[in-house]
Design a protein that fits this description.
GO terms for molecular function: flavin adenine dinucleotide binding; glycine oxidase activity. It comes from Corynebacterium hylobatis. By secondary structure, the chain is of the alpha/beta class. It folds into 2 domains: about 180 residues, FAD/NAD(P)-binding domain (3-Layer(bba) Sandwich), CATH 3.50.50.60; about 140 residues, D-Amino Acid Oxidase, subunit A, domain 2 (D-Amino Acid Oxidase, Chain A, domain 2, 2-Layer Sandwich), CATH 3.30.9. It is about 30% helix and about 25% strand. The two termini are about 40 Å apart. It binds flavin-adenine dinucleotide. The site of flavin-adenine dinucleotide has 43 residues, from helix 1, helix 2, strand 10, strand 14 and helix 9.
Length: about 350
């Protein structure tokens, strides 16, 4: 079997190295600080249905396929580490704060149904039976059973442990040029420095971490997403008694949490789940999503020695399972089993 270098140890690089090592390939992973990029800040929702993006038809099959691959990935990782991943499969509720938000939610649900996705309108009474922490003053609710979650920080730590157990060498250094031999470039926003044909931009997101006091725990048992006066907010209950609240989206080159964004997130979260007001405030951080001009990833082989796997933008935690599986197939010269033509890595190269 060949020896491969994976550059970048965010979730995409870690899971790719895992799939390769598990198959018996010799793997070296290079990252000065694994899981310190977007992965460290991400919410971790595996949400192909709730995150459906209007007119992004090329993205749906990738997201749905990756969601299908997740249970297998989690089961395989668990064979090589005892560490937790925060994987939860209780599903997601999407709620609307007022009547205009309810109209928006109804339109989204129709769009999901038209694309064959499973989303069920719920009477508010039923939504509050499922999640008693929800405000009684909501205007609509939809249940999405297939949208799940992981805790990205825990999952990354579990993958690192699994890689150690599989004998993967981890070099804690910054790659300053492409290594020789078979290489997978999976270093998020850093990929443009090593392969300049890519066009990646940072799309910042503020995200909060709160501690749920014991007397309120569990405040929620599944992901709650909502529309509040046309803004989006989500609340993600973790297995460790914390709650993540996210996330803003801005392209202003300001890599620290913005007071206005933090204020919006807290106010909107409290409107949907009033108990949030009583939680401990633990952390506000900002991460940079690696965005491409068309919001589709760069995933494919560009030469006999180089595979690119980056640009996963808002969906990189969800798309991790697909990225890892498809890269394994590309390395082994097999058909990845899904059409990746929309992800061709050289599609934004400027012609001379
Ligand atoms: C606030 C926020 C919330 C999000 N929520 C979700 C969500 O709920 N669901 C979802 O699916 N996605 C979500 N995302 C998107 C997701 O986080 C990213 O798409 C995903 O983490 C990308 O993973 P990655 O491994 O490609 O990149 P990263 O996690 O950014 O990892 C890149 C790695 O490469 C390393 N690196 C960089 N340059 C070099 C170099 N030259 N040599 C060696 N190593 C290098 C870095 O140290 C880093 O560890 C969110 C993002 C943000 C910011």
């Amino acid at each position: 079997m060949s020896t491969l270098t994976v550059v970048g140890g965010g979730l995409v690089g870690l899971a790719t190295a895992f799939r390769l090592a598990e198959r018996g390939h010799g793997v070296t992973l290079v990252d000065p600080s694994p899981a310190s990029g977007a992965t460290h800040h991400a919410g971790g929702m595996l949400a192909p249905v709730a995150e459906v993006v209007y007119r992004q038809d090329a993205l749906f099959p990738l997201m749905l396929r990756s969601a299908e691959l997740y249970p297998g990935l989690m089961a395989d990782v668990a064979k090589h580490t005892a560490l937790p991943t925060g994987y939860r499969t209780e599903g997601t509720l999407v709620v609307a704060a007022d009547r205009a938000d309810a109209t928006h939610l109804a339109e989204l649900t129709d769009y999901q149904a038209a694309h064959g996705m499973s989303a069920e309108r719920l009477p508010l009474r039923r939504a509050r039976q499922l999640e008693p922490g929800l405000s009684p003053q909501l205007a609509g609710a939809v249940h999405i059973p297939g949208d799940h979650q992981v805790n990205p920080r825990l999952f990354a730590a579990a993958l690192l442990d699994a890689l150690g157990n599989l004998g993967v060498e981890i070099i804690r250094e910054q790659a300053t040029r492409l290594p020789g031999g078979q290489t997978i470039l999976a270093n998020g926003l850093g990929a443009t420095a090593l392969y300049p044909g890519l066009q990646l931009r940072p799309v910042y997101g503020d995200i909060l971490r709160l501690g749920v006091p014991e007397y309120l725990d569990p405040l929620l048992s599944r992901v709650v997403r909502g529309f509040v006066e046309d803004r989006s907010v989500y609340l993600i209950p973790r297995t460790d008694g914390t709650l993540a609240i996210g996330a803003t989206s801005r392209e202003d080159d300001r890599p620290t949490p913005q007071a206005g964004g933090v204020h919006d997130l807290l106010r909107d979260a409290i409107r949907l789940v009033p108990g949030v007001e009583e939680c401990d405030f633990l952390e506000a951080t900002t991460g940079a999503r690696p965005g491409t001009p068309d919001d589709l990833p760069y995933l494919g082989r560009v030469s006999a020695e180089l595979i690119i796997s980056t640009g996963y933008f808002r969906h990189g935690i969800l798309l991790t399972a697909l990225a890892a599986e498809a890269t394994l197939a590309l390395v082994e010269g097999r058909d990845p089993g899904i059409d990746l033509s929309a992800c061709e890595p050289n599609r934004h190269q400027e012609l001379p």
